[in-house]
Prior knowledge:
Layout: E1 2-5, E2 11-15, E3 18-22, H1 49-52, E4 61-63, H2 75-82, E5 85-88, H3 90-98, E6 106-108, E7 114-117, E8 120-127, E9 161-168, E10 171-176, H4 183-186, E11 193-196, H5 206-214, E12 219-222, H6 242-252, E13 257-258, E14 266-267
The structure holds zinc ion (ZN).
Zinc ion binds at residues 66, 68, 129, 178.
Amino acid sequence: MTLRWLGNNSWxxxxxxxxxxxxxxxxxxxxxxxxxxxxxxxxxxxxDPARIDPYISTAKHILVTHGHYDHLPDVPHIARxxxxxxxxxxxxxxxxxxxxxxxxxxxxxxxxxxxxxxGYTIQVFRSTHSTQGGKLVFPGTRPASVPKKPRVIAxxxxxxxxxxxxTIGDVKIMNFGSSNFISREIEGLRPDVLLVQPGGGSTHDxxxxxxxxxxxxxxxxxxxxxxxxxxxxxxxxxxxxLETLRAxxxxxxxxxxxxxxxxxxxxxPR
Length: 270
Ligand SMILES: [Zn+2]
């Protein structure tokens, strides 16, 4: 079983006869996210197959953690190209349909699902998004019907946040697409590989509470730590959260190996 980091919270997990993608977003159009002002809401959404196709050709599942612009925009193209089933909330799937994703590949989940496939399982958990000083950026839901086509990043609302646990053989991999979580939903899961995002400054006791709920994973791999206005084809540029996360993990979970995987690199848990 191998994980490959495709930048931001994009992961390709290969093994057990399957390929699973989490939040695949490779176009990385310029957003201004990591400037003091943050991303302007009127930045146009772009999805460019020329930046996606060299890296992604097959997948059985695409797991969406939330609806934001650095997670969702490339999913319609990748779903069409691979034929993968897309798991997400009602809002995520409605936004994806509005962006042209094939409706018959959409798989509505809400947290609590435990899917058995041939050789692996996928569990879905209710989660929650980080905030900036207690306020969610680009909040909202798009229930019931397909909205008009999203054009700018503010059109891609969060639409609930999900966490995923993938089990291939005897290896459990957990992913959070944002620096927040719901303790009671994940209590006792004991993943072997934890993909965790830095930040969480507005989340009470972020890292200690997470490890209190999850135990001490063998491997902790940072995700979503690169400035995605920088290219995927160069080494990742830390937006400033990596060393704080490393220190917090060392304190909360001293027996875990903190493994930094760079852009496009692979990691195989032993
Ligand atoms: Zn987000």
